[in-house]
Structures are given as structure tokens and as C-alpha cells.
Amino acid sequence: EPRKKSSYEIITLTTWLLKQEQVGTIDGEMTIVLSSISTACKQIASLVQRAPISNLTGVQGAVNVQGEDQKKLDVVSNEVFSNCLKSSGRTGVIASEEEDVPVAVEESYSGNYIVVFDPLDGSSNIDAAVSTGSIFGIYSPNDECLADIGDDQNLDQVEQRCIVSVCQPGSNLLAAGYCMYSSSVIFVLTIGTGVYVFTLDPMYGEFVLTQEKVQIPKSGKIYAFNEGNYALWDDKLKSYMDSLKEPGSSGKPYSARYIGSLVGDFHRTLLYGGIYGYPRDKKSKNGKLRLLYECAPMSYIVEQAGGKGSDGHQRILDITPTEIHQRVPLYIGSVDEVEKVEKFLA
Ligand code: AHM
Ligand code: MG
Predict the structure, then answer these.
(1) Ligand 1 pocket, 288 CB below 6 A?
(2) Which ligand 1 atom sits closest to the C-alpha of 121?
(3) Is the CB of 69 inside a 6 Å radius of any atom of ligand 1?
(4) d(CA 261, ligand 1 centre) in Å
(5) Looking at residue 108, what is its pLDDT?
(6) 122 lines ligand 1 (CB under 6 A)
(7) Which stretches in the chain have pLDDT values below 70?
(8) Are the beta carbons of 50 and 59 closer than 8 angstroms?
(9) N or C end of the chain: smaller count of CB under 10 Å?
């Protein structure tokens, strides 16, 4: 007879990870990497929540390699993330939205896990205390890539080796997740066996398992696009957008929801169904979002939940990046909704 579950029994992220290690889904190194990421997220959650008190709102005064204003919290979160990964001793290379090039953690690259991350996504929302998040993906070192080292004189060898090892298609991802800093702090994770949701219990200071094997609805009548860019879109996309506003036979058009924080907009889409899109436009030829640390991890998660991630024509996870900050159009969410936009764009 199965053991009766005590009503005080909770599963924390830590115990869940240890269990996964025990059954052999992940190895000990991955357990350590994931647990240091969760520590970084807890620390960032606390910094985000206290930002106006501790004078962490506003801009840093610097511009990152992609020409974006860095917020103070962008810089701090990047430091927190990098430090947690470095001190785990299990990460070989990290690539971050806020760093110009990937960074080798060990002097001589030792072949441990590669972590790509956006430490604080949606930070334009931060000064108004609107949801933000951290996104991450984990890869194994790629030997094939290591063989292709060119002799680019501008980059030293270690740097060059790091770039080629992080430039892998999302289909190689071993794990991906995000942490959303919102009314609850939510940690969403996949290690290739479905999507698990943990909620930070502020009393315990632990992430507690609150949803397992999440499945995204097959369709959903919510869309999240920055429609301010409508005039810059091509005609096919415009007619897709117009079609969402037709009441149709149900008499009800789609609902628009747009936070401007990928993590928040994605999390709602995952739970309620619908679509999130960041298309290419006349000004931004490849859209805005980055393939490596935004689109690929989110696409891996959505596929694990039974959804779809596309650039409008092909599966995001099949695209191999050639640069670490490469951008790509993104359409992600319920299968029916992503296929619908693909049809319009074909
Ligand atoms: P960031 O990484 O600089 O924060 O930019 C990414 C964010 C996404 O979270 C969000 O979906 C998108 O940019 C919003 O862009 P826009 O303001 O153009 O709608
Ligand atoms: Mg980002």
C-alpha cells in the first residue's frame, strides 16, 4: 500500500532535483548548476522587490554591446548570475545578454556545462514594479564546434573557442527555464521530461513544486504583440493581425494582452493558451529577441508543454546561431495559434 502523504509534505526544488539525479535523469553536475541558478534567481528576486528602497532603480549610465541602455538592475543581476554559476564550479562557459562575448569560467576550458542566460529580461518595466524575469538554457560542450575554430585575429583563442561552443541549436538544450518576478516568484524548469513550476515560499525561502507536467492549451484566444509596430510590419502579418480582430461565428474577437516582458507574457500564454509574437519589421530585420538566451530556451519549454516556437517559417530549435547576440523573429504558444500565423506568413 502506498505511503500516506502527510499534509505537511512539500516538494522543494532541491528535493526534486536530488530525486531526478537519483533516478538518473540528470547528473550531479547538472543538479549543482541548476541549484546555483535557483540561488541566483532568489537573490535577484529580493533585489528586484527592494529596488526602490535600495536605490537600484534607474539606468547605470552604460550601453551594452547591443546598444541598449543598461539599467542598474541589469548590471547587478548579471553579476549575481555569473557569480552563482562561477562559484558552482560546474560551469565551463557562460554567455549573457549583458556581456559582449561568452566568458570561460575556468582558465583552461574544462568541458563542463555551458549556460546561456538573460539575467533580467523586460527590465524596461522595472522602475514601475511590473513583472520581469530571468531566462536560461544549459548545453553540453559541442565538440564539432570546437573543431571549427577559425583564425580570427581579433579574438583570442579562448574567447573564440567559447563562441563556437555556445553557438548550438536549441535542439541541443539539456535544460531550460525562467524565473518570473511578479506577484509570486515563479521558477519554471524543464530537463526534457515535461515542464515543472515551482513557487517561491517567502517564509521558507524555498521554491516549492506547485504544478507538474504543464500542458499548454492547444488553442487560445489571447495575443501578445507590440502592435505599436503595426505600420512597420509586412502585409501578410498585417492581415493576420486584422484577422484576430474579426468577431467570427462566436461573436468574440481575440483579447490583447501585452506586458512587454517576455517572461510574463510567455508565462500567461503557457497557462492560458494563445500566442506571443515579436515579428521582424521594416526597422528591425530580425525582430528584437535574441535566439540564444531568449527564443531557444522559451521554445524548448513550450515544446515540452506541447506547444510550438517558430520564426514564422521554421522551428526555432532547428536554427543554429552564428553569433551569440543573434536576433530572430518569434511566434510562440499554442500549436493552433502558431500554425495560424505561419499560414498567413507562408
Ligand atoms: P530586454 O532583454 O532588453 O529586456 O528586451 C526584451 C524584451 C522582452 O522581454 C519583451 O517581450 C520585449 O523586449 C518588449 O519589446 P518592446 O518594448 O519593443 O515591445
Ligand atoms: Mg532580454
Answers:
(1) yes
(2) 4
(3) no
(4) 6
(5) 42
(6) yes
(7) 1, 62, 104-111, 142-162
(8) no
(9) N
Work out the end-to-end distance of the chain between its first and last CA atoms, rounded to an integer number of angstroms: 56
Residue 96: what residue type? S
Atom of ligand 1 nearest to the CA of 278: 11
Cell of residue 74, nine digits: 541589469
Give the separation between CA 246 and CA 229, rounded to whole angstroms. 20
Dihedral of CA 178/179/184/189: which sign? positive
What pLDDT is stored for residue 245 in this prediction?
A: 97
The residue whose CA is least distant from atom 7 of ligand 1 is 122
Burial profile 238-263: b = 16 or more Cβ within 10 angstroms, e = fewer: eebbeebeeeeeeeeebeebbbebbb
Q: Tell me what pLDDT residue 105 has.
A: 62
Non-local CB neighbours of 208 within 8 Å, separated by 6+ positions? 10, 11, 12, 13, 198, 199, 200, 201
Q: Which atom in ligand 1 lies closest to the alpha carbon of residue 289?
A: 6
Q: Give start and end residues of each alpha helix (H) in the chain.
A: 13-22, 28-50, 72-88, 143-147, 157-166, 235-244, 262-272, 296-304, 335-345
Q: How far is the CA of 237 from the centre of ligand 2 (A)?
A: 23
The interface pTM score, or ipTM, of the predicted complex is 0.97
* Residue-wise pLDDT tens digits, 45-75: 999 999 999 888 887 776 777 777 778 898 8
Residue that is written with C-alpha cell 517564509 in the block: 203
